[in-house]
Design goal:
The protein is built from 16 helices and 10 strands. Helix 5 packs across helix 7, helix 6 runs antiparallel to helix 7 and helix 14 packs antiparallel against helix 15.
Length: 445
């Protein structure tokens, strides 16, 4: 039984196609059950996020399994299969395993190392497990992948380097003040950047968030999103005297906070420390404000410098993550090949024993008057011939089991000796094209 993945993501398909291909949560169980009913599919998981839709399956017939999934996509989403084909990718066997390991580690995401995908993969697997559509291969596949994702983040800290301006602004505030709970925070502006920043603030534990905007109604809407409170622009000086952190992202064409005004406010605050983060373009806060005692001012260029440095750190972490994935791939490969190698060796030995016993009994039928000692010699010789004949194929097969070609050699041996292999996987049908096999050693790009 072999893992495959068919799907599309932000790199292979535009947003209008990804929208059509997404699965609503209410559809998921039915979709999983429909896929599981396909004869070639023994286990399945659907991963559907804003940036990707993928079906992971365990199949006994790789090509037939892929065709079934593509047909399912086309029928379920009412998209012509020929149109859909140009956006879909397919990974089989160990390429499929490596792909999921990279996905769950955040290496295949729009933002490298992002954390959200780990929870999304976990939820997708749990839903499939609850629906009763997984099997041994899928269970080990996904449980291993989730462990790999956690290991990558623990050992590389790839998700500890923020790479968005809004997230970096919040991280900067945490560095300055530690815990944000109980700190007074004023967000000036209610546009997209302010919205993203507000969400990050709430996630970071902020509980006292004020929102001010030229349009008070927009300030009210954003305040509701972040469980904060809207304040009128005319009253903002009063709150500047009280808050600890100001994050400004208005659409003003002129400076909103000037040095003279901030000097007066700092005197009224008794020079209590204040952090100002200006993420507006053009800037909201006059650069000379940063020279006022007890004020720390950071503008968009300061944040971009941090983001660029974090991008480099994430790239370095990604290289280490790929090394970890290589290690985990080797372990998974050995486990997966053992599913076929062990039953195949047992079947080969049983085949040899059956042939030995049959031929010995035929020989005895033509040989009369043998003493028990002579019969023992004949049986010992027959047993020795079979053991010597099978010894080398068994030893070599065990060695090949630790390579990406192990499953292929296993099936060749099954076909050559017409072995009746009985295991969970059944008799696999996997005489893949040479170019597919060569892909196993290629590192994911």
């Amino acid at each position: 039984m072999f893992p495959v993945v068919i799907g599309l993501n932000h790199k292979s398909a535009p947003v209008e196609i990804r929208e059509k291909m997404s699965f609503h949560p209410s559809q998921m169980v039915k979709a999983l059950q429909e896929l599981k009913e396909c004869p070639e599919i023994q286990g399945v998981v659907i991963l559907s996020t804003c940036n990707r839709t993928e079906v992971y399956a365990a199949t006994t017939d790789v090509e037939a399994g892929i065709d079934s999934i593509k047909e399912f996509f086309a029928e379920h989403h009412k998209i012509d299969e020929n149109v859909l084909e140009q956006y879909l990718y397919a990974h089989t066997l160990y390429n499929a395993v490596r792909h999921l390991f990279r996905v769950v580690s955040g290496l295949d995401s729009m933002v490298r190392g992002e954390t959200q995908i780990l929870g999304q993969v976990s939820s997708a697997y749990q839903q499939a497990n609850d629906a009763g559509v997984t099997n041994k291969v899928i269970n080990v596949f996904f449980q291993t992948a989730l462990a790999v994702g956690k290991r990558v983040r623990t050992e590389t800290l790839i998700d500890q380097h923020p790479v968005s301006i809004s997230y970096t602004a919040v991280e900067l505030a945490k560095q300055q003040f530690g815990e944000l709970k109980g700190k007074g925070i004023l967000i000036m502006g209610a546009g997209e950047m302010s919205t993203l920043t507000a969400k990050h603030l709430v996630s970071a534990g902020a509980t006292t968030v004020l929102v001010s905007n030229r349009s008070y109604d927009k300030a009210v809407l954003l305040a509701k999103e972040c469980c904060g409170r809207a304040v009128r622009l005319d009253d903002v000086d009063q709150y500047l005297k009280e808050v600890d952190i100001v994050i400004s992202a208005t659409a003003s064409k002129h400076f909103v906070l000037l040095p003279e005004r901030m000097q007066e406010i700092m005197e009224q605050r008794n020079h209590r420390p204040m952090l100002l983060i200006d993420i507006a373009v053009p800037r909201d806060i006059h650069p000379e404000v940063g020279g006022i005692s007890h004020i720390a001012l950071f503008d968009i260029d300061d944040l971009r410098g941090v983001v660029d440095r974090h991008h480099q750190e994430r790239e370095a972490a990604a290289v280490e993550a790929e090394r970890i994935i290589d290690e985990e791939m080797d372990l998974f490969l050995k486990w997966h090949n053992s599913l076929f190698v062990v039953p195949t060796i047992l079947a080969l030995q049983q085949k040899g024993e059956q042939i030995r016993d049959l031929q010995v009994e035929r020989a005895f039928a033509h040989l009369s008057g043998l003493t028990p000692k002579q019969e023992k010699v004949v049986r010992s010789m027959a047993n020795s011939i079979v053991n010597h004949l099978l010894h080398l194929p068994i030893v070599n097969l065990k060695e090949y089991a630790n390579t990406s070609q192990g499953h292929l050699y296993t099936e060749i041996l099954q076909n050559l000796f017409d072995l009746n292999v009985r295991d969970e996987a059944g008799r696999p049908n996997l005489m893949l094209k040479k170019n597919q096999e060569q892909g196993f050693h290629r590192r994911a790009e």
